[in-house]
Amino acid sequence: MHDRILVPIKPKHAKHSTELMQKAVSMARGEEAEIIAVTIVPEIEANLRVRPDDHKPELDAFVALQDTSGVKVRTMIRTGAPHRAITSTAKEFGCDLIVLNSSNPRIADYLMGSTASYVVTHALCDVFVVRQQGS
Question: Which pTM value belongs to this model?
Protein backbone atom coordinates (compact mmCIF):
# COMPACT_ATOMS: atom_id res chain seq x y z
CA MET A 1 0.00 0.00 0.00
CA HIS A 2 2.86 2.41 0.82
CA ASP A 3 6.33 2.23 -0.73
CA ARG A 4 8.09 5.28 0.70
CA ILE A 5 7.37 6.84 4.10
CA LEU A 6 8.65 10.28 5.11
CA VAL A 7 9.29 10.73 8.83
CA PRO A 8 10.25 14.21 10.09
CA ILE A 9 12.53 13.69 13.10
CA LYS A 10 13.59 16.13 15.82
CA PRO A 11 16.56 14.41 17.49
CA LYS A 12 16.47 16.98 20.31
CA HIS A 13 13.00 15.65 21.20
CA ALA A 14 14.17 12.05 21.40
CA LYS A 15 11.23 10.70 23.43
CA HIS A 16 8.60 11.82 20.92
CA SER A 17 10.81 11.13 17.92
CA THR A 18 11.44 7.58 19.13
CA GLU A 19 7.71 6.87 19.42
CA LEU A 20 7.15 8.37 15.98
CA MET A 21 9.95 6.30 14.43
CA GLN A 22 8.69 3.10 16.07
CA LYS A 23 5.25 3.60 14.53
CA ALA A 24 6.74 4.37 11.11
CA VAL A 25 9.03 1.32 11.24
CA SER A 26 6.09 -0.88 12.21
CA MET A 27 4.14 0.37 9.19
CA ALA A 28 7.14 0.03 6.89
CA ARG A 29 7.80 -3.57 7.95
CA GLY A 30 4.21 -4.54 7.24
CA GLU A 31 4.38 -3.04 3.77
CA GLU A 32 8.07 -3.53 2.92
CA ALA A 33 8.36 0.23 2.52
CA GLU A 34 11.41 2.48 2.67
CA ILE A 35 11.65 5.20 5.32
CA ILE A 36 13.12 8.61 4.66
CA ALA A 37 13.99 10.19 8.01
CA VAL A 38 14.41 13.94 7.63
CA THR A 39 15.38 16.70 10.02
CA ILE A 40 14.33 20.22 9.09
CA VAL A 41 16.68 23.00 10.20
CA PRO A 42 16.62 26.77 9.71
CA GLU A 43 18.29 28.04 6.55
CA ILE A 44 20.49 30.26 8.70
CA GLU A 45 21.37 29.22 12.24
CA ALA A 46 21.78 31.70 15.07
CA ASN A 47 25.38 30.48 15.15
CA LEU A 48 26.58 31.25 11.62
CA ARG A 49 29.32 28.64 11.92
CA VAL A 50 26.73 25.85 11.98
CA ARG A 51 25.82 24.58 8.52
CA PRO A 52 22.68 22.54 7.82
CA ASP A 53 24.67 19.36 7.15
CA ASP A 54 26.27 19.69 10.60
CA HIS A 55 22.98 18.23 11.93
CA LYS A 56 23.26 14.99 9.93
CA PRO A 57 25.48 13.10 12.42
CA GLU A 58 22.89 13.76 15.13
CA LEU A 59 20.09 12.40 12.92
CA ASP A 60 22.19 9.38 11.88
CA ALA A 61 22.99 8.64 15.54
CA PHE A 62 19.31 8.86 16.47
CA VAL A 63 18.32 6.45 13.68
CA ALA A 64 21.14 4.06 14.63
CA LEU A 65 19.60 3.72 18.11
CA GLN A 66 16.24 2.64 16.67
CA ASP A 67 15.27 -0.94 15.84
CA THR A 68 14.94 -0.61 12.08
CA SER A 69 15.92 -4.18 11.20
CA GLY A 70 14.41 -5.28 7.93
CA VAL A 71 13.61 -1.70 6.85
CA LYS A 72 15.64 0.46 4.50
CA VAL A 73 16.13 3.89 6.09
CA ARG A 74 17.64 6.94 4.41
CA THR A 75 18.48 10.07 6.36
CA MET A 76 18.65 13.62 5.12
CA ILE A 77 18.66 17.24 6.22
CA ARG A 78 16.42 19.87 4.67
CA THR A 79 16.26 23.58 5.39
CA GLY A 80 13.42 26.04 5.70
CA ALA A 81 10.06 26.29 7.37
CA PRO A 82 9.15 22.79 8.59
CA HIS A 83 5.62 22.74 7.17
CA ARG A 84 6.78 23.63 3.66
CA ALA A 85 9.95 21.53 3.79
CA ILE A 86 8.02 18.42 4.81
CA THR A 87 5.51 18.66 1.97
CA SER A 88 8.14 19.56 -0.64
CA THR A 89 10.45 16.71 0.45
CA ALA A 90 7.56 14.24 0.26
CA LYS A 91 6.80 15.42 -3.26
CA GLU A 92 10.47 15.43 -4.31
CA PHE A 93 11.02 11.79 -3.28
CA GLY A 94 7.61 10.45 -4.28
CA CYS A 95 6.60 9.57 -0.74
CA ASP A 96 3.14 8.10 -0.45
CA LEU A 97 2.87 8.50 3.33
CA ILE A 98 4.06 11.10 5.84
CA VAL A 99 4.17 10.07 9.51
CA LEU A 100 4.54 13.07 11.80
CA ASN A 101 3.68 14.11 15.30
CA SER A 102 1.41 16.79 16.62
CA SER A 103 1.43 18.25 20.09
CA ASN A 104 -1.44 19.76 21.99
CA PRO A 105 -2.11 23.05 20.21
CA ARG A 106 -1.10 26.36 21.74
CA ILE A 107 -3.11 29.53 21.22
CA ALA A 108 -0.72 30.68 18.47
CA ASP A 109 -1.49 27.48 16.54
CA TYR A 110 -5.14 28.46 16.38
CA LEU A 111 -4.22 31.83 14.93
CA MET A 112 -1.45 30.77 12.54
CA GLY A 113 -1.93 27.03 12.18
CA SER A 114 0.35 24.17 13.20
CA THR A 115 2.89 22.28 11.12
CA ALA A 116 0.73 19.15 11.25
CA SER A 117 -2.40 20.95 10.09
CA TYR A 118 -0.50 22.51 7.16
CA VAL A 119 0.94 19.15 6.14
CA VAL A 120 -2.44 17.42 6.40
CA THR A 121 -4.09 20.02 4.14
CA HIS A 122 -1.25 20.49 1.62
CA ALA A 123 0.46 17.10 1.25
CA LEU A 124 -0.17 15.22 -1.97
CA CYS A 125 -0.05 11.88 -0.14
CA ASP A 126 -1.52 10.19 2.92
CA VAL A 127 -0.62 11.67 6.31
CA PHE A 128 -0.60 9.76 9.60
CA VAL A 129 -0.54 12.10 12.61
CA VAL A 130 0.69 10.77 15.96
CA ARG A 131 -0.71 12.75 18.87
CA GLN A 132 2.00 13.69 21.36
CA GLN A 133 0.75 14.42 24.86
CA GLY A 134 2.57 16.87 27.08
CA SER A 135 4.71 18.43 24.37
Answer: 0.88
